[in-house]
Specification:
It is built from three helices and six strands. By secondary structure, the chain is of the alpha+beta class. It has a six-stranded mixed sheet, covered by helices on one side.
């Protein structure tokens, strides 16, 4: 793995956050392998684990639409990228995350959660793609109002 590979992976991670924040979930598909594993943990408790990109995109779309209906603008910040080269075609990356919400009725953004995200990237003929994304939130938050996804 060279610096160009690291830069490409950092751009993929940032683009992934951007697409979520601007409610462009379908565009996220191009960043992932078709059978990518996605998961989420809160305060040591597993919330979900999927090996279906369709289910992940459906869940993320429902969550993002719910925030939009509530007048919430999310912003995801990624820092401190730590890479581990597993092989020529597999790289792991841990990223620290902060998420804020800007509510239209409030002047100041509010820190919602902190944690980290473990990514795995595989090299494909189209370049690096996310093959695994598992989010670890430091604290427990109430379940979303959307419960059918």
């Amino acid at each position: 793995m060279n610096q160009d590979d690291r830069t490409q992976m950092m751009e993929i991670i940032s683009t992934n956050s951007y697409y979520y924040d601007f409610n462009q979930q379908e565009k996220r598909r191009e960043l992932y392998t078709e059978n990518a594993n996605t998961g989420m943990w809160m305060a040591g408790e597993q919330i979900y684990n999927y090996d279906s990109l369709d289910i992940f995109i459906e869940r993320q779309t429902a969550r993002r639409n719910q925030l939009e209906r509530r007048g919430i603008i999310p912003r995801h910040y990624n820092t401190d990228f730590l890479f581990e080269n597993v092989s020529d075609d597999l790289v792991k990356c841990r990223v620290m995350i902060l998420t804020t919400w800007q509510e239209k009725k409030n002047r100041n953004p509010r820190l919602i959660h902190s944690g980290y995200c473990d990514f795995e990237f595989i090299r494909t003929i189209d370049g690096w793609k996310i093959s695994s994304r598992v989010l670890y939130i430091d604290h427990k938050i109430p379940p979303p109002e959307v419960t059918n996804v």
